[in-house]
Write a structure and sequence with these properties.
The chain is built from 29 helices and 14 strands. The protein is of the alpha+beta class and 704 residues long. A 5-stranded mixed beta sheet has the order 6-7-5-8-9, with helices on both faces. Strands 11-12-10-13-14 form a 5-stranded mixed beta sheet, with helices on both faces. Helix 13 runs parallel beside helix 15 and helix 19 runs antiparallel to helix 20. The longest helix is centred in the first third of the chain and has 22 residues. The radius of gyration is 32 Å and the shape is flat.
Length: 704
């Protein structure tokens, strides 16, 4: 294996202006004080401020500093990577700041600035992943919090995510390979939107600007799903959002709060997330229980009752003075929660009586031009305790919120589906599963509940418990897309690929524009050798790929398209697709491995072929196919001993694989060891008498 730490000198590049813009501006200001620093690339093209155009073009052509006077003086400074211009810095200053400075002095400063920029880049990039490290994350976060503290107008919300990708590995070397692969996947997935930083030990930091709490949670959940589908063992996310109206914390506190949220996510499951906001503001949680005072008052009311209804009454609108105008409750006891909400107790009431009371109350409120929504819970009911009725009222009120103001809903299974979704969306899978389970006790034939419960169990890696629930949903509705789709993924996770393919194909017949479905089905077709079918669905996937994760998703499509075209013998198309995949993700081991083999077959350079295959096994040494392709390339170069060692590594991973054994037999033939080749082919035929290739090779050896 090669040395896993990349300590080479890295050239300055135009893309560094985005990545290190803050640090580079600080360096320029240290050498040449200025009010503001801007950067533009070394080549014409792209948008450029009209007032800068002439000065920038003069520097690009003459490669010397230029000072432009006026109300704001602009110093245009060339910056270098060695002797090559890599950008132009534009310094804003009061008139006369650098007007009289000599060109040679400014040029010397530009060389010093360039050298310091290069040094910053070398130390900022972490050697295992090639990503920026924790210091850069700290700087970005500090800059955002300082802007917020300064009260800059139009400051959008942002979120800090700490993502832990647990490197399941046998030793340090494999752990480093897993971390490097994780970083490449992450950078390819979202690097065009947000720059990931590697803090160490497989923990990555990301700052998402312009995202509120809800949007951040959805994106984080999507990210976890992608990581799970890519085969990572565990991934958790801790989130600290900074919303528009809240004060700015110190950066260390902010980081600590995200870290605490990550710790909670670890306890929630193998693929879980947690938000600091949900932990710190439990009183504002939509399912927050009432205060102890409320339960004390309710116990006095229901202590001797065997039947009652409890109604949570919510004023949909306030009067100008902030208090709602409440109608008389017709003698029913009331426990006030706050100015807008109260619990009404109806002793001995059943559902009919409770709904009648609610309609009467709403009608009297409407006469006073006030609207009230009601959530109703009954006791006894489906094994719930008295003390749980207040919480059930809240769930019923959240349920009725879907129907708009002035509505009324009785607590049922759908109410529990909604409360379960609230917990699921904030990453609390265990509590979500509890709500869905209770919902199924009330409504066992509810397809949404069956699906929700099964998806949650699957997210917790409890596939054997999830599969029967998906099957129950399909027994009720055979063409339910989500049940077919999710059941396919559950079978995929339990290595039942034929059953996964069957359910994916049924789902495709219902809906043919789901990108993830098309990608997974194409992947399975490739594995089954159904190359033409794979091309058909993957070409469709190219057309419908999601914009938010376009780079990595299309990279995966191109990888499997390359494999399919390779299987069809269309090597030129295969190479084109695999090169696209490698551009999307330079650490895509499968794409690199297949490219290496095809480069050898198409005589495009056996040295490059060997380098690509070696890189693939370094990135992912637990896949027998990478070792097999490396052996093919080594044998093609006449390096038979090395090829034999690579094949033995492959057989350690999959000792009964007939393709590997046939490859081993062929290698023995090339080395003139026909006796060993005969034994290998005989072994294959004893295990699988129908293996035609082994029979033909053995027959040919006997004739010889």
């Amino acid at each position: 294996m090669s040395f896993p730490f990349d300590l080479r000198h890295r050239k300055l590049d135009e893309v560094d202006l985005d990545l290190f813009g803050l640090e580079f501006a600080e360096i320029v200001s240290l050498f040449l004080p200025s009010r503001k620093v801007h950067f533009v690339g070394p080549h014409a093209g792209g948008e450029l401020h009209a007032g800068w155009k002439a000065g920038v073009e003069m520097v690009r052509n003459a490669q010397k500093p230029v000072v432009d006077g006026g109300e704001v003086e602009h110093l245009y400074l060339p910056l270098w990577d060695g002797e090559t211009l890599f950008c132009v810095a534009i310094l804003d200053n009061p008139p006369g700041t650098y007007q009289d400075s000599s060109s040679s002095l400014l040029l010397d400063k530009s060389r010093l600035i360039s050298a310091e920029m290069s040094r910053v880049k070398q130390f900022a990039l972490e050697p295992v992943t090639g990503l920026p490290g924790g210091r850069m994350l700290h700087n970005r976060l500090q800059a955002l919090l300082q802007k917020k503290r300064a009260g800059e107008k139009g400051q959008p919300p942002f979120a800090l995510l700490l993502l832990e990708i647990h490197p399941r590995a046998r030793d340090g070397e494999q752990a480093l390979a897993v971390i490097a692969r994780s970083a490449a996947f992450l950078d390819s997935l979202i690097g065009h939107l947000f720059t990931p930083c590697h803090l160490g030990s497989g923990i990555f930091g990301l700052i998402w600007e312009g995202f509120g709490e809800g949007q951040t949670m959805k994106m984080a959940d999507l990210l976890l799903r992608w990581l799970k589908r890519e085969g990572f063992a565990r991934s958790r996310i801790g989130i600290r959002s900074c919303l528009s109206g809240e004060p700015a914390e110190a950066v260390e506190i902010f980081l600590g709060q995200a870290w605490d949220a990550l710790g909670v996510a670890r306890r929630r499951g193998p693929f879980a997330l947690c938000s600091h906001q949900a932990l710190s503001n439990r009183g504002a949680h939509p399912l927050c229980p009432p205060r102890p005072r409320v339960f004390t008052e309710l116990r006095r009311l229901w202590q001797d009752s065997e039947r009652f209804a409890l109604l949570l009454v919510h004023a949909d609108h306030n009067d100008d003075d902030g208090d709602a105008s409440w109608p008389d409750t017709a003698g029913a006891p009331v426990v006030r929660l706050d100015k807008r909400e109260a619990l009404v107790y109806l002793d001995g009431a059943d559902q009919q009586a409770a709904e009648a009371w609610g309609r009467d109350f709403q009608a009297r409120a409407a006469g006073g031009r006030t609207s009230f929504s009601l959530g109703i819970a009954l006791y006894p009911g489906q094994g719930f305790k008295k003390v749980e009725t207040a919480g059930n009222c809240r769930k019923a009120l959240l349920h009725t919120g879907f129907y708009g103001p002035g509505t009324m809903t009785v607590f049922d299974g759908v109410s529990l589906n909604i409360s379960g979704d609230i917990y699921y969306n904030e990453g609390d899978l265990a509590r979500a599963a509890k709500e869905y389970r209770l919902g199924l006790q009330l409504d066992p034939a509810n397809i949404n509940l069956l699906n929700s419960m099964a998806v949650t169990l699957a997210q917790m890696n409890l596939y054997r418990r999830a599969i029967p629930l998906f099957q129950q949903a399909l027994a009720l509705e055979p063409a339910n897309f989500m049940a077919l789709y999710n059941l396919g993924f559950a079978f995929l996770a339990t290595d039942e690929e034929d059953r996964a393919m069957e359910n994916f194909e049924k789902a495709l017949a219902v809906q043919d524009d789901n990108f993830d479905l098309l990608l997974q089905l194409g992947k399975l077709y490739c594995k089954a050798g159904r190359w033409a079918s794979a091309v058909a669905v993957l070409r469709r996937g190219e057309q419908v790929g999601p914009g938010g994760v376009r780079d990595i998703s299309h990279g995966a499509v191109h990888r499997y398209l390359g494999e399919a075209y390779k299987g069809l013998g269309e090597n030129g198309r295969a190479i084109s697709c695999l090169q696209k995949a490698a551009r999307h993700n330079p650490r895509d081991a499968a794409a690199l491995s297949m490219l290496g083999e095809l480069f050898l077959l198409e005589k495009q350079g056996d040295e490059i072929a060997l380098a690509l295959c070696r890189q693939a096994v370094e990135l992912a040494d637990d896949d027998w196919r990478h070792w097999s392709r490396l052996a093919t390339v080594q044998a093609g170069r006449g390096e038979y001993d090395d090829a034999l060692r690579a094949l033995r590594r492959a057989l350690v991973l999959d000792g009964r694989n007939s393709r590997l054994l046939i490859q081993l037999g062929g290698l023995y033939e090339k080395r003139g060891k026909t006796g060993l080749a005969e034994k290998i082919y005989g072994k294959i035929l004893r295990a699988d008498p129908t293996c035609r290739e082994a029979a033909e090779r053995l027959a040919a050896l006997h004739k010889a």
